């Protein structure tokens, strides 16, 4: 994508103070490159805070490293990010640049790759935090796919609530809230797996709460999946939607919030498969994208790389990994960067961009 087109994104951003940059899947090479390029431009517009779709608790390691802490970029990418989102060469390049800049970093998400509250609880100096670690130990896992859902209990919820309500320090309160939101999120997944209605969207709620926790009146860049940043609820199955983080942020910030989707017409994307022998309990693989379906934003925009104001879009679908999300695109997003072809990042096993 040409520099002039990315410069045009800044015109669309206008006076927005919370700018969310999405992606239709993680570990896509072009999305990582474009996000970095946009962050550089937003810094020139006065943005000095970056919130990322990764654990809030783990993010303290990243921010300390960016301030000059010990370790190399691969180490901080591995240990400072949840869901493996710091492992790509595109993220390494952006982190290396950030280490030379006056930009604060924060994770936004629940702790422990959506499976374990330990990283959040261990950062709280309280005997009740240690009790909460013990109470949640029966279900604590590397990620939500590996959680023994039959071990979820009200005992853990009570311990987490007691801890949060005992705290005075705002950061410790937010850490404890993350553990509570994770507890609720896992119960929501269990309900969905049992075919029951889902009462809330605790993970997205916490991401929005994290943005508000960071907000001291400054300009903030948010990097999350398109499904998290859209301004309207996300449809997780036909006839059932839950609020996205962007739903909460749009309600809170109105026109100060700008939602930018990143998507593409064809190429390859990542898939995930459970693998208990892998570091995080899952492995990534490369898969081909099918042709854009009728009614989708990708079909509407065709094969060319483009930056588009979506106010007049008629699309009712947008890519979500290799699937399609039903949404009124003009209401969900303010603008989109659409690419003709996508490639998965070289961090995905078996991928070699030099070939």
UniProtKB/TrEMBL annotation:
It holds the Pfam family Erythro_esteras. Signal peptide: none annotated. GO terms for biological process: response to antibiotic. CDD domains: Ere-like. It comes from Amycolatopsis xylanica. This is Erythromycin esterase. Gene3D superfamilies: Biosynthetic Protein domain (1.20.1440.30), EreA-like (biosynthetic domain) (3.40.1660.10), EreA-like, domain 2 (3.30.1870.10).
């Amino acid at each position: 994508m040409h520099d002039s087109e990315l410069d045009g994104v800044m015109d669309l951003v206008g006076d927005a103070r919370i700018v969310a940059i999405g992606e239709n899947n993680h570990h896509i090479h072009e999305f990582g490159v474009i996000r970095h390029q946009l962050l550089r431009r937003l810094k020139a517009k006065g943005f000095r805070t970056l919130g990322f779709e990764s654990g809030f608790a783990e993010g303290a390691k990243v921010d300390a490293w960016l301030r000059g802490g010990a370790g190399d970029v691969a180490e901080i990418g591995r240990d400072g990010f949840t869901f493996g989102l710091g492992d790509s060469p595109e993220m390494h390049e952006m982190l290396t640049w950030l280490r030379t800049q006056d930009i604060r970093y924060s994770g936004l998400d629940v702790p422990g790759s959506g499976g374990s509250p330990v990283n959040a609880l261990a950062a709280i100096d309280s005997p009740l935090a240690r009790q909460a670690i013990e109470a949640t130990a029966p279900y604590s896992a590397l990620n939500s796919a590996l959680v023994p859902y039959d071990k979820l209990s009200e005992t853990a919820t009570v311990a987490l609530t007691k801890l949060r309500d005992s705290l005075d320090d705002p950061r410790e309160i937010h850490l404890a809230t993350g553990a509570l939101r994770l507890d609720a999120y896992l119960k929501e997944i269990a309900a969905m797996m049992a075919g029951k209605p889902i009462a809330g969207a605790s993970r997205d709620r916490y991401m929005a709460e994290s943005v508000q926790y960071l907000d001291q009146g400054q300009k903030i860049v948010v990097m999350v999946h398109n499904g998290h940043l859209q301004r309207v609820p996300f449809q997780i199955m036909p006839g059932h939607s839950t609020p996205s983080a962007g739903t909460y942020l749009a309600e809170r910030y109105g026109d100060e919030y700008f939602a930018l989707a990143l998507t593409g017409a064809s190429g390859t994307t990542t898939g995930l498969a459970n693998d208990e022998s892998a570091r995080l309990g899952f492995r990534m693989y490369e898969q081909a994208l099918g042709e854009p379906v009728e009614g989708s934003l990708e079909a509407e925009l065709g094969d060319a790389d483009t930056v588009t104001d979506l106010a007049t879009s008629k699309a009712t679908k947008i890519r979500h990994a290799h699937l399609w999300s039903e949404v009124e695109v003009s209401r969900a997003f303010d603008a989109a960067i659409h690419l003709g072809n996508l490639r998965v990042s070289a961090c995905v096993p078996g991928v070699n961009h030099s070939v």
